[in-house]
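Batch manifest, entry 17 of 40.
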Amino acid sequence: MLDRLRQRLHDLLTPQSVLEAHEERALAAKEGTVPIAQTANRQPARVSGVIRSLAISPRGSGAAVEVDLYDGTGAVTVVWLGQRQILGMEPGRHVIVDGLMTIEDNGQRIMRDPRYELIPWAVGK
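Output type: structure tokens
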């Protein structure tokens, strides 16, 4: 009884963003993916997370779909060049991406044209 009360008090006093980060880390662990913060530059990585934003960006002669993927440990910008949309890809959706991780000089992680798997809504929500 006391443990449940402590947990409830913890949940009430902990900022929502911290609770959401914990949920994302737990889901990533369940999917068997590597935490984004632990990925290395120019190494293959399989990561998962929630799409926080999605944009269609003009890139040279074609468009690109660009998403910000967050897993509770960090974020990666995932870019699919030559795409104008990817069905099912939308903010709030959980996705697994598998490709080459690049870490820019400023620390920003980018993955270009990875394989992806949309996680069913029931699992991610």
